[in-house]
Amino acid sequence: MKPSLQRLRDRIESNASLSGEERETMLGLLADLEKETDSLGDHPDAEKIREAVTLADTATAGEAEASTAEKEDEESPLEALQNAILELEASHPKTANMLSRIGQVLANMGI
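Below the sequence we write its predicted structure tokens.
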């Protein structure tokens, strides 16, 4: 998960369209998400969160379109991220909310 988080951080830090406040908010959300996941240790839900972060990384890397074009029957990374967030809402609402906010800001940034 750490490489995915780092790539997301890099995209956020290099995005000129973000204000300083937006950038700090996003970086704070990523840090909180990392702490939350680390605190779960080997709990099965920790793996779901790691997968969601990887999906966010994949979706924002421009791989979503390529993946969708190649395999129309499979869900895109963005759809998979949304489904992962839905699965986490009941057991980890705070984490699901963080993932949702991260996804929304990334989408608004056009990343």
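Residues 20-40 form the longest helix (21 residues).
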